[in-house]
Amino acid sequence: LLCAGRADGVATGVAGGKSPLPPSSRQVALGRIQAMRRQAVMLPSELEPAPLSPTVAVDEGEIEYPGPLSGPQRLLRAATFWSRALPIVFSYLQLQASFNVRERMGETLDEAAMELEWDAQHTMGAAKLKETIETLMGFYVKTGQIIAARVDLFPRQYTDALSGLTDYVDAMPASLVKRVIEQELLTGTETFSDVFQWFDDEPLGAASIAQVHHARLTHKYGGMEVAVKVQRPAIEPKLLGDIANLKALAKPLRSVPSIPVDYYVVFSELEAQLADEFDFVKEAAAMERIGAALLRTPSGEPCQSPVRTPLPVANLVTRRCLVMEYMDGIPLSRAKAQMEKRGIDPDGPEAQLFALKLLRALTDAFGRSILETGFFHADPHAGNLFVMKDGSIGLIDFGQVKQISGRAREALAKVIVALADRKSDDDPDELALIGRLSLELGVVLKPDAKPEGPAATAMWLFDGSVDKLPGGYDMGELSPNSPVMELQSFPQDLVLVGRATVLIKGIAARLGVKWSLAREWAPIARSVLEQQRNPPRPGRTRFRAVLRTMREWCKGRAEKVATRLSPALRRRLASAVLRLRKLRGLE
């Protein structure tokens, strides 16, 4: 599932003049955003975007937005996928076979020497996989991003090699980017300089679907610093063709016992989400909705958001171009290099304290989004997480979002509370309750699964603090004895919830922290269930909310003061805080 066909270059045609969108295009986009604000829901499928002008001039050629890949083109990409992926797989099988042969011949294998050979194999495999993904591009970059985030599952060589895929792949030329912007944003006789005071030709990031540039708007458009996201021409049919290949591959494998997860369901859900990711008008609405929800409690009281989210510039949004607030920070994927540049030990107390803060922020942000509204960011990886200059955490790229049903949200909240309230991991009554609630979520296990299977699956997904699961299952997702091996099907509503939990589990694993999402999300889940039973009265400001606001303000001020201390004092302060956490049993 890691690779497939070479990415086509930008298609060009005969020379032609500039063909800008009519002024009504932005008006349609504005109307769509305003409608979504009023409805506070995702864009209805019946509202179609304004048609895109088919070509835009670039020097002497034209950019084309072709239709879906043809059958032969999809087969060619699939063939290229297998021709590059199979040698990597066979090299692992060959090394394991050589160990087996040597062992059968009576040779005593040295563990350290074997480890060195495996390390060399991982290094070679990771390099080939990275080269393959960078050659093939498309949806396979997304797969590489997932691998890079799973430090708890994949060898270090793979996570290190693929970490660069999280926010930077081949960049489009600036001339091409500007021409696309001109077609998407300019109206009438407007020129590029009428909209932008300056525009940085070097991209902030270039990902699989789009790339982003730093710019400043003219006073006519507010004069603020912005990030400009521009979709890659010709990328939509390529990525949809890639995922269609993967669905075709996964469908006949649904009945294979040795494959624990129904990847056809996973890819079907990702296909639906990916289709939305090509519409930046939807992304702008999702960005505003999630940001606004995190700034208020379910009862409507103001609160501090655990993460910062950008705001779109409403009159500069179209289907393929999005202008938004500039986030002054660096991607998490580059944080280690930035720490080393500033003389901060990536394994030192300052870095550990920040990682704990990151873990807390993501836990709160995703817990609130998933349980309070059911509408959440569905593409979390290190390229979409920002370390802001003030030390706060930023969350960007809302192209993939998910709305789960109210029924699924209620069932999930009950599972979380049951997991957090259990007294032991082997009480039959508690396991039966957790298992029943898990089945209500739509989890289906194989007929011959152990009775503890449903409860073990819930604990595996939401409680990383346990070492052993009920029924004798292992926590390791790739272990033959994992509860994942018992899954027959997994509800589509939970596929992307699982992706968020995977990210948080991966960060906790890197820190060596036993992190229970069930325990951390339980207060949110209880609040959600209580408000369903007793809806809050509107218009009341509670004293508790005032205290919470004051506490958050004091915490923010303390963090700002800490950033102004000398490096030596910051290290001492971070060490003291970590020692205090250990004394209080918080890690």
Walk me through this protein's architecture:
This protein is an alpha+beta fold and 587 residues long. The strands form 5 sheets. Strands 3, 4, 5, 6, 7 and 8 form a 6-stranded antiparallel beta sheet that branches. The chain has a 3-stranded antiparallel beta sheet with strand order 9-11-12, with no helix packed on it. Strands 1-2 form a two-stranded antiparallel sheet. A hairpin with a 4-residue loop joins strand 11 and strand 12. Helix 14 packs across helix 15. The N terminus is likely disordered.
- Multimeric organization: single chain
Using the alpha-carbon principal axes, give the shape: globular
Broad structural category: alpha+beta
Total number of strands: 15
Contiguous low-pLDDT stretches (5 residues minimum) are: 1-30, 35-61
Helix percent reads 40-55%
Q: Describe the biggest sheet? A: 6 strands, antiparallel
The rounded Rg comes to: 25 Å
Span between N and C termini?
A: 36 Å
Task: Estimate the strand proportion.
Answer: 5-15%
Count of DSSP-assigned helices: 19
Mean pLDDT: 77
